[in-house]
Amino acid sequence: MTGTVLDTLVPAETPEGILLELRPSGLCARACAFLLDMLIRFMIFSLLTTVIALLGALGPAILLIMLFLLEWLYPVAFELTRWGATPGKRALGLKVVMDNGLPITPAASLTRNLLRVADFLPFMYGSALVCMLIRRDFKRLGDLAAATLVVYEARETRKAQLPQVEPLAPAIPVALQDQAAVIALAARAPRLTGERLDELAALAAAVSGDAGGAGPEVTRRVLGVAQWFLGRRSP
Amino acid sequence: MTPIQFEQLYERDWEELRQLLAQMHGRRYGQERLTVHGERVAALYRRTCEHLALARARFYPAYLVERLEQITSDAHQAIYQHSELGIGRLARLFSRDFPRAVRAHAGFVWTAAALFVVTSLALGLLVYFRPELILSVADAGTVAQYDQMYSKAAQEIGRPGGAGSDWGMFGFYIRHNVGIAFQCFAAGLFAGVGTLFYLAYNGALIGAVAGYLTERGLAATFFAFVVTHSAFELTAIVLSGAAGLRLGYSLLAPGRQTRLQSLVKAARESIVIIYGVSALLLIAAAVEAFWSSAGWIPLAVKYSVAALCWIAVISYLTLQGRRAN
Asked: Which of A21, A64, A151, B316 lies 20 to 30 Å (CA to CA) from residue A201?
């Protein structure tokens, strides 16, 4: 399949021998998440400053310790929750996982966040930028050392609604992959405009014996064949 | 078997697994968190994995495969997650893992210590014989402050007049010192060069200040101030340097692994040292803020406590956690 060449999916094998596909997040989404987190940290800090001003003598100590915690442990604390992501990452639908797709461990989270210092050098996350751009899985240095990956969280998939048309026997023998392609087309039908659906169905018209044809009637027949591939038969 | 039959046949298993997982996680689905039978979850998970493999091999429609992928990946996460946090883990860390990790990195520790000590001695002697050189590591204002901080008249040693309370300094030391230690560690990622630089730099700075104050005749107050907390602080800086050197070395000499594998292994093993370093620096900050700066404690007491601290730290690192269990 040509699609696999362009994809940045990272396969992670489970002990059961199946491959889970992780979708690493690119530079832009991560930069946005980072900026959001900066903003949140800044807001927490300004809130703290106002509250702590009322505390008197102990104030500066608490403030400095809070600053330290915000600087170093803010990402760690949030990555160890069950969402595995800081608020900024969650807002963008990202999360941090181990290379094998499991939730991040405390050691790995600490490693990747302490090594942020190295990523920051020489200035403004220069190393992280270069490292992320030359890798297919967009890891920064901290991710490399901690064996972690920032991925898009899987969306809830809803059950596909195939258009209900009369099942139709295929006119020619069709290989399994091609059957899957025809079914995939039918599953996408509700999200396509009528014209686009006709165009795409015309490419598959051979399966219903309408090779070369196009138009709503051909589309209906192709969708009928899709129903047949799924296993529906006319009553 | 057609996709529809397949779905009808196994749908119930998938739904059951999904519901059990939802129960495990609880809150998200607005349900109560219930204990579920691990055995049942594991069995259903393995079965669903099998279904996913079948669905892929038979080129079943994408929506079906995606649905199975989602269920299996949720279950995978729930079943294989580690729980590393907890009091037991923390106790094990300090009673065993941290000192063992330090001893396992003995070569790196000695290298880091040697670099640190040699640069501080060199700069110390240099500045002692040519005091004007202190101006090349600190500006005149800061130097004047050193004079004032460690003068015999200072009520609170080691901090500029009018600086915050003990607590304020405690906060400052934590932030400042832990920052230096983390930097020392992380910079190791650049083939260890960054760590070498930070170790030498901090060694030089401390040596220069010590040399300068000795030349000015303030050695007594200065050493009485630093001797106690340095047991924790200098050890911690050297240890974080050792952890950083380990990172760098893993990249330079990966052995029979790829550089990446070697780095991952080095990071996993050396981060244990960093846990311990953070704890040491916390102690150091407390000692520095509340004990070292107190001018009213007699020197004899300070030096005896300092000796005890040094002995405690060194014997902890060399002896603790040696017994097999």
From this structure: A21
Question: Shortest Cα distance from A213 to chain B (angstroms)?
Answer: 25
**A235 assigned to some structural domain:** no
Judgement on whether residues A117 and A208 belong to the same structural domain of the protein:
no
Q: Do A64 and B190 touch (CB under 8 A)?
A: no
Residue for token digits 């939802």? Answer: B22
Q: Which of B213, B297, B201, B294 is nearest to B244 (CA)?
A: B201
Query: Which pTM value belongs to this model?
Result: 0.84
Pairing assessment for the beta strands A10-13 and A19-22 based on DSSP bridges: antiparallel
**Chain A residues touching residue B73 (CB < 8 angstroms):** 20, 101, 154
**Contact state of A18 with B53 under an 8 Å Cβ cutoff:** yes
Chain A residues with beta carbon closer than 8 angstroms to that of B52: 18
The answer to whether position A19 is within a domain reads yes
Q: How many whole angstroms separate alpha carbon B150 and alpha carbon B137? A: 18
Q: Which two tokens stand for residue B13?
A: 């298993």
Confirm whether A158 is domain-assigned.
Answer: no
Q: Judge: B186–A115 Cβ closer than 8 Å, yes or no.
A: yes
- Whether residues A34 and A122 share a domain: the answer is yes
Bridge partner list, A149: A97
Q: What is the ipTM of this complex?
A: 0.84
The verdict on residue A163 lying in a domain is no
Check whether residue A100 and residue A145 sit in a common domain: yes
Indicate if A107 and A14 belong to the same structural domain: yes
**Chain A 70-109, CB below 8 Å of chain B: which residues?**
71-72, 80, 82, 101-103, 105-107
pLDDT tens for chain B, 325 residues: list them: 888 888 889 989 999 998 888 887 765 545 555 667 778 888 999 999 999 999 988 888 888 888 898 889 888 888 887 666 778 888 888 999 999 999 999 999 999 999 999 999 999 999 999 888 888 877 788 888 878 778 766 666 666 554 567 777 888 888 888 989 999 999 999 999 999 999 999 999 999 989 998 988 888 888 888 889 999 999 999 999 999 999 999 999 999 999 999 999 999 999 999 999 999 999 999 898 888 887 788 888 989 999 999 999 999 999 998 887 6
Q: Which residues of B touch A184 (CB under 8 A)?
A: 61-62
Contacts of A20 (CB under 8 A, 6+ apart): A11, A12, A13, A14, A101, B69, B72, B73, B76
